[in-house]
Amino acid sequence: MRAKLIASRLFFSATAGLVVILVITGFALSLVYRDATERAFDRRLNLHLRNLVAGVGTPDASPDRQSQSLGEPLFNLPLSGWYWQIARTDGDKAEVRASRSLWDRKLPQLDSESVKLTTTGTRSAYVDGPEGQTLRLVERPVDLGANGRFLVSVTGDAKEILDETRNFNYHIGGTLTVLGIVLLLATIFQVRFGLAPLRRFSLPAGRSERA
Q: Of the residues 27, 84, 104, 187, which has the fewest C-beta atoms closer than 10 A?
């Protein structure tokens, strides 16, 4: 009975520790992967943003031509989640140029939502889109002096980030589950093997442990 009690305690304590470690590992890996996916998505948005900033000083450029220069057909697909917007911020009359995909909607401004500028002079955050979808938005204020001040914004459908993260969580969850089962079996073997001498020692004299 004493050997069984010790074995049970060792097994349950090892199992509890194993579960905690695997859960923390899975959570940490998920956060790291989401952060990496988000940064890769932001680099894609920032590339479009830089191309738009380069064309801010040419107000005669049509929205269709600017969208074509970005090389992303989704900017021409209505309410696709991929939008760009160039808004003049220094005049009494609002001047806004936007991708065809945005139609007559407007993108929110992150400066009004207390989102701070990064060292690269941009802001980024998740926002709600015109159709209720979650968007990843990157914006940059541009000051052209006498030619005006502008706010350039680009968004992408954040569903890509969420789907990538969800797919990773599914696979890492399955992998850690299999690993947990293997480690659990190894724990059972170690407990039984390690306590085997104690079990033999606890048997009454004249009796031998049966296999």
A: 104
- Pairwise CA distance, residues 49 & 171, whole Å: 33
pLDDT more than 90, % of the chain: 37
Cβ atoms of 32 and 165 within 8 Å: the answer is no
* Residues in Cβ contact with 2 at an 8 Å cutoff, skipping those fewer than 6 apart: 198, 202
Asked if 163 and 36 touch (Cβ cutoff 8 Å), the reply is no
Predicted local confidence at residue 191, as pLDDT:
67
Please list, residue by residue across 80-101, b when 16 or more beta carbons sit within 10 angstroms of its beta carbon and e when fewer do.
bbbbbbbbbeeeeeeeebbbeb
Please report whether residue 208 resides in a domain: no
Number of domains in the chain: 1
Question: Residue 140 is part of which domain span?
Answer: 52-163
Residue-wise pLDDT tens digits, 69-97: 677 788 888 889 999 999 888 876 668 88
Residue 6 lies in a domain: no
Cα 131 to Cα 112: distance, rounded to the nearest angstrom? 21
Q: Please determine, for residue 208, whether its predicted confidence score (pLDDT) is greater than 50.
A: no
Cα–Cα distance between 51 and 49 in angstroms, integer? 5
Does residue 152 fall inside a structural domain?
yes
For residue 59, what is the domain's CATH number? Answer: 3.30.450
Q: Tens digits of per-residue pLDDT, 18-57?
A: 889 999 999 999 999 999 999 999 999 999 998 888 877 6
In a domain, 206, yes or no: no
